[in-house]
Amino acid sequence: MRLIPKDVESLWTLFTAPTVWALHFLACYVTAAVFCAKAGVAPFSFEAMRLALGVVTLVALSGIVLSAYLAWRQWGFGSGDPPHDEPTRKDRLLFQGFATLLLSGLSFVAVVFGAVPLLFIGACQP
Amino acid sequence: MTDLSSEDRTAQEARLREVWRTPSGWRYWTSVNNTEIGLWYGAAAFVFMLFAGVLALLVRVQLAVPGNDFLSADMFNQAFTLHGTVMMFLFAVPIFEAVAIFLLPSMLGARELPFPRLSAFGFWSFALGGVFVCGSIFFGAAPNTGWFMYPPLATDKEYSGIGADIWLLGLSFIEVASIAAAVELIVGIMKCRAPGMRINMMPLFAWYLLIVAGMILFAFPPLIAGDILFEMERMFDWPFFDAARGGDPLLWQHLFWIFGHPEVYIIFLPAIALMAMIVPTFAQRPIVGYSWIVLAAVGTGFLSFGLWVHHMFTTGLPQISLAFFSAASEAVAIPTGVQIFVFIATMLAGRVIFSVPMLFGAGGLAIFIIGGLTGVMVALVPFDWQAHDTYFIVAHLHYVLIGGMLFPIVAGIYYYYPLLDARKLSDRLGKIAFWLMFVGFNVAFFPMHLAGLRGMPRRVFTYPADIGWDWFNLISTIGAFIFASGVTLVVIDVLRPKHRQPKGEQNPWNSGTLEWISEPEEKWGVRSIPIITSRYPIWDQPSLIEDIKAGRGYLPDAKDGARETLVTSVLDAKPIQCLRVGGTSILTIVAAFSLGGVFIALTFHWWITTIVCAIMTLAAIIAWLWTGTAVIPKEEMRDVGLGETLPLYTSGPQSVGWWAMFITMAGDGTAYASLMFGYFFYWTIHEDFTAGHAGPGMLWPLTAAGLFTLAWAAMLAARWVNETDRRGLTRLTLAVAMLLTLAACCAGLAGPYLTSMDPTVHVYPAIVWVVALWTVVHGGVAIIMQLYCLARNLAGRMSARHDMDLRNVVLYWHFLVITAITSFGVLGLFPGSR
Amino acid sequence: MRKIGAGAGLPLARRRMRAISLKVSPSGARSISRRALPILLIPLSGCTGAQSALDPAGEEAAAVFQLFLVMVVGGALIWIAVVGLLIHAGRRRETPWSAEKAGRLIAWGGVAFPVVVLLALLAYAVWLMPAIRPWLARVAPAPETIEVTGEQFWWRIRYPASDGMPGFETANELRLPVGTRTAFSLKAADVIHSFWIPALGGKMDMIPGRTNMLSLEPTRTGLFRAPCAEFCGTSHTLMAFSVVVMEPDDYATWRRAQAGGNRPGTGEGKRLFAYHGCAGCHGVRGVTGPATLGPDLTFFGQRQTVGAGTLANTAQNVARFIRDPGAVKPGAKMPAFDMLPEKDIAAIATYLVGLQ
Questions:
Q1: Beta-carbon neighbour count of residue C139 at 10 Å?
Q2: Which terminus of chain B faces fewer neighbouring Cβ atoms within 10 Å, N or C?
Q3: Residue ranges of chain B with per-residue pLDDT less than 70
Q4: Of chain A residues 49-68, which have a CB less than 8 A from chain B?
Q5: Is residue B673 included in any domain, yes or no?
Q6: How many domains does the structure of chain B reveal?
């Protein structure tokens, strides 16, 4: 049984992984900005926030991996090579799968990049 | 399939020609045909570019030697402000709209984009706004605060005079045109492709433009929201950016750069899109890595919204915030690199014919790569702390924009010129122009990197003699003039009379994409709409051109005397509707000029003229909608040829109008979200955001939210009642909904009004008023729409089957009800009623 | 439209070695750039200048300069490789690459290589941020904080009280001890300005309604120039201050002199200064009350320039400035005093230059 049908008939699936990136980015930026602006008011420490954002990062990365898996499945697990330019519904689906897979890869890297600051910066200083 | 006799074909062609005819005489300017609008748009943008180029030369002359007094300080400040403003708003963005409007229909195999009158409206708005903004410098009244308009310098009326108003209002007007173009392009690309052109067959240009139009939709509205706050401060002294009264100049910087950074990619991607069309032609093979390009376009589109704070690295934000933006700014280099490698890979896998378009393309890439590398540098926070606001940045941004945008545009001009005139531009002049531009550019801008790191700040009108910048500046000025001579040569090549040159063939470069089927002298776009089975149909479908010309495709005729094109499904491009698009009309010009009148009158605070122009705009738009949209056709179905019969009228998500409303409201929602961002921004920067000022209370805001919800429910009921074909009851329901809306608007204003919140005292009452007003104004627009539906119903122009107007208005209401509940919920409940 | 006089040069750099109680000692320099590859310095030679980020004299500037060198070399190599490949790709070849091979080029050259390089670079730079701009609360010993306020178009500078000496105000010239971290509390009085001493480190904006903090540690003595780095109006160009980095002993002496004594000056100029109302805006400690509108002029004669980096500090130039500030510095807030008798202007100028 498949929870998500193999062939999702929508253009929107293409944007799944970048949307996860965007949400992760927003979560990190907004949390840090509000925490630092309201310094002293928040009931938790910078370290705790850092840890929480680390968890958010892991969640985001797993979401992207899931999106990548679904895309890989739609792409037939790499059974056919690009360019997927035949005038058939099948090739259109393979193209969507492949493009989504590539975007998942980029989004994964972008989320990893976005987590680098959490490793090195340990205070709100300007 | 049997072929038609030649008489029948001639008769078809005559009918088509008559329908798509461009009017002559002064009425020529009322044309809405995409080829005319595209050409005017492009020509106007180019003229603005030359004007801004002259300003740049004035700047360079002033800086050629230290202590120069060629320009006064104030004139210099006006010149560089206008140079940046015009290049960004009046050249870089509009030129891509121009190219897209010109090329897209034929590239997609469509007769027209779905809303040709909207394109015309956009063009006239742009032209009028542009002349207004540029003209100001001849009266010494140009904006002089830098193109980024930072308050409190730009809100200081004594310093900037009406220059800042001209900037804000003139450009808001042009932003309206850009959003109109975005709506047009998204719907056109999604819904108007030739049958068979599935999503994996779309020309890459269309992919890029789809992403760019989407970006415009989310990037421009924050600036419009910022403009509103800014003008409210300048006109009525509402202290959004005045620190003394709780405002904060940084909010403007956020809103400006949330627009400003995606803007760079909005400029850059369409130019790269041109490269993606040019490179395969001259490599004589399909592009290698079609999916990679899609990845790059979509990826850039997303990442570009996570970069804006890299313009604010020195504003004293926490390092952790800066670092997030630095990370995204590094990540965006990856899709950019992918695109460059796709072009190189395509060239390596093909047999390259080197030509003038390729020369400009490759030269542009060589320049752009330097800009990209310095971009990676300045995206790193520590380096930017030094480089920010120096000539290093001036060099960087010109390497990016001229290499990544101007050179590809010139490549595009040389490549696509035959579509205008069936003749090529001169190879010899092109090569000379290229070398002048390439060498001149590098001579002008490379030394600026060094001048900047040796401490030369931006926007200085002179500099001391012995600080070590003399030679750099002199060389830059010389380079600028060499570069300008190259640009002049391109202009000469385009404008020189070519009637002695023989007309060439239709597809001189042997390209494979569909835009090369269009014939310069015919206005119908495509003689008949073909079925597409390849990414490069001209290469792979041998009888394509012949079939098209013989009228063997869809819609080979115009029997009803209407301009028709096909609407197809988003993913697989199956024909679903025969769409009748608007023809020649003067209403678009009237609407654009009246709207322009509103903005211009506001600049000078001529309130009565403003109101008169606003009423004229409304009248023109309603006349335009009434006569030109949701027309009930005489017959339901239309034989479109090839044995297919399609409906002429659709409503709801099937129709292009519904999508246009959806997309417009997505942009509108973004502007609203930006205002709410402002609300919470003020909350974060203050310990007590209200500063002890009374809020609007809980009662009235929550009442307003409730009434808006009821009105929305009434609209849903009206749609349902209309579907059951009970006209009288529909009228009644609409009337009830209207009264509820009116009551909701009054309740919305009652909160801040009855608690006598004074918006000039502190930023808290000011932002409360703005949020309430924004929502109530949308309520007012809703009332106009309800009246319109009522009138359509009374006039018998709306029925159970033909309910497009009502459905679009209900869609508007979905957005409005979310806005209203958010606005009044937040105003009433956050940060706690008092 | 007003034009500025052709002779309005900014002669600071020429005079940067002018004798002041300043001992330039090379031993104070701990520039990281010395450790950088010498070969890189060849194209950058001649990068000296009182306002150059390529001639670091502070911790932050040195670290950033090193980052810059790494990136320039890397960037140049990448550019040569990619453009070389582009030129190669543009030539005719007998057998074109296969689509698979070309696809692999995209994957390796366009994706894998940039991902690795950018990640490394990002980590380096993000690690550097707290290293060069440490959290002030954790710096020991706590650095002294000087308050600098940007005003159209000059700099108000307030030194804090220390060692029992009172704090004092000065303008347009900052003196710092070498080898010690000093913090700056940065404010703006009217519009946004930006505080930037290129030789010592990066910039920090001065924003109305906000107080930004920055700390810098000079590593060698010298005279440097610091321009306003955010466009702030008509004379944004003519808004700079001088930075004198001194040996700690000299610095201490100077601090004592500033905080303790004052040099009231003598002569007719002193009387005219008060008589013509100059004291309404400008303060001279010990002579007038504290004035808030314009720059403090207490030890004016010690300063390098008149008009915040506009003209060399000579009696002639001071007189010229008093006569019509707008002529040498368009948009300056100080009104013209050309209605005063010429000899009064000269006397006031002489008096001011004498405030050593």
A1: 13
A2: N
A3: 1-3, 832-834
A4: none
A5: yes
A6: 2
Percent of chain C at pLDDT exceeding 90 = 70
Question: Residue-wise over A79-89: b if at least 16 C-beta within 10 A, else e?
Answer: eeebbbbbbee
B289, A28: Cβ pair inside 8 Å? no
Query: Which residue matches tokens 């109101």?
Result: B611
Identify the helix (H) or strand (E) that includes residue B644. strand B644-647
pLDDT of residue C135: 87
* A113–C136 CB contact, under 8 Å: no
**Mean pLDDT score, C208-229:** 96
**pLDDT tens-digit readout, A47-71:** 999 999 999 999 999 999 999 999 9
How far is Cα C197 from Cα C206, in angstroms, rounded to an integer? 14
> B464 is in which domain, residue-wise?
386-501
Domain extents for chain C? 34-136, 268-353
Burial C209-237 (b: 16+ CB within 10 A, else e): bbebbbbbbbbbbbbbbbbbbbbbbbbbb
CB-based burial label for C354 (10 Å; 0-12, 13-18, 19+): middle
Distance CA C67, CA B385 (A): 12
Q: Are B211 and B585 in contact (CB under 8 A)?
A: no
Q: What are phi and psi of C204, to 5 degrees?
A: -145, 130
Q: A66 vs A8, A54, A69, B740, CA distance in Å? A: 15, 19, 5, 47
**Residues of C with CB below 8 A from B362's CB?**
86-87, 90
Question: What is the rounded CA–CA span in Å between residue B291 and residue B444?
Answer: 37
Q: How far is C351 from chain B (nearest CA, A)?
A: 27
Q: Is residue B461 part of a domain?
A: yes
**C103 in contact with A, Cβ within 8 Å:** yes
The domain boundary, picked from B444, B471, B501, lies at B501
Does residue C260 carry a pLDDT above 80? no
Across the beta sheet with C144-151, the strand order is: C168-171, C154-159, C144-151, C182-188, C212-216
Give the per-residue pLDDT at C264. 65
Return phi, psi of residue A112, to 5°: -60, -45
- The answer to whether the CB atoms of C126 and A117 lie below 8 A apart is yes
How far the first Cα of chain C sits from its last, in Å, is 38
pLDDT at residue number A74: 86
Q: Is residue B218 part of a domain?
A: no
How large is the ipTM? 0.94
CB atoms A126 and C136 under 8 Å? no
Measure the CA–CA gap between B364 and C70, rounded to whole angstroms: 25
Is B41 a domain residue?
A: no
Q: pLDDT for B492-522, tens place per residue?
A: 999 999 888 888 878 999 999 999 988 888 8
The reply to whether C101 touches chain A by the CB within 8 Å rule is: no
Verify whether the Cβ–Cβ distance B315 to C68 is below 8 Å.
no
Residue C162, pLDDT score: 86
pLDDT for C27 beyond 50: no
Q: How many Cα atoms are found within 13 Å in the side-chain-facing hemisphere of B459?
A: 27
pLDDT of residue B518: 85
Domain with B773 in it: what CATH number? Answer: 1.20.120.80
Query: Which CATH code is given to the segment(s) C268-353?
Result: 2.60.40.420
